[in-house]
Amino acid sequence: MTDLGGPGNHRARGPGDGPEAVASQIADAVESLTALWSFAAQGASLRLSLHQLRALRTVQAAPGLNLTALAESLDIGLPTASRLCDRLAAAGLLERTPHPDTRREVQLRLTAHGQHVLVDVAGRRAQALATALAAMKPAERAALSKGLRGFLAVQDSTSDTDGAQGPVT
Question: Is the pLDDT of residue 8 over 90?
Answer without folding.
Answer: no
